[in-house]
Amino acid sequence: MKKIYLSLLCMMIVMCGFSQTSVGTRLDIIKKTNGDELKGKIIRITDTDVSFVYSGETAEYVIKKTDIAQITHSSGRIEVISEKIAPAETRQSDRVSMVASPADHHNKIAILPFTFLMDNQPGAEAIGLKAQQDAFGLLSQHSAGYTILDPRSTNAKLIQAGATREKMIGFTMSNLCDLLGVEYIIDGTVTQNKGYQTSYTSGSDNTKVKRDDAEKVKGVSSYGSTSSSAVQRFDVSVSLQIYMDNNVSIYNESHKAFLSNTDGSYGGPLEYLLKRCPLYRK
Questions:
Q1: Residues in a beta bridge with 147
Q2: Which of 275, 281, 192 is nearest to 240 (CA)?
Q3: How far is Cα 58 from Cα 41, in angstroms, rounded to an integer?
Q4: pLDDT (tens digit, 9 = 90+) per residue, 129-180?
Q5: pTM to 2 decimal places
Q6: How far apart are CA 252 and CA 171, in angstroms?
Q7: For the chain, what percentages of helix, strand and coil (3-state, to nearest 5) are there?
Q8: What is the DSSP string of 139-188?
Q9: Which domains does the chain have, with CATH numbers?
């Protein structure tokens, strides 16, 4: 009989220990904004990231807080990290056909064709397209963590949606972000105004003296020429604006070329602004 009681007591102790162990090994659960759930152990939480280890594994993963909706800690406490963004099709204020949800926009960038103004009047469209391409070429080399839509794809999507330069004023930046499937829109303007003009004049004169065999002056002939040229210089500036898919402007700066130039080059001011924008990575 004593053996029976002893066996029952041992079983109860084992069951209690198992129950306590189960409670002690409860997992942290991370729910991402896209609906995925990750179960394991949270190692640390910073202002921007969460370090996490999957259950039964040892590899440590770092997850951006912007990708996390909430965390259910092993203690049972629920911590809301970011609000889930509503699907794009539910936005009543948008007037264009949506092709991507805001979750698909994350860390994606599109550069619009630049506006080119010559003496404050609309200039050649080709220069605006060239500035767009140049901005893409520079930023794509310094955009770690971002995906930049190439200009050809950007322009094709805009044209297919009817968002031409003349009609673009009818679209909000949120509209354009949804249309292009990006989180950030870069919009720019190149302004070129005629500056001072430098003129150059040069002349020459040539005189020939003819002599006979006796070294006497026989005759004098002379001729001269004058030429002039003018160099036109330009004052060039670039303006750059960056918007998010919620219509918020996060960057709005202008920069003028330090010295007037003769070819209207905008490369210097454009590079200056891009290197100081929040999307540039060294």
A1: 108
A2: 275
A3: 10
A4: 999 999 999 999 988 889 999 999 999 999 998 988 888 888 999 999 999 9
A5: 0.54
A6: 19
A7: 30, 40, 35
A8: HTTS-TT-EE--HHHHHHHHHHTT--TTTGGGS-HHHHHHHHT-SEEEEE
A9: 28-84 (2.30.30), 88-194+231-275 (3.40.50.10610)
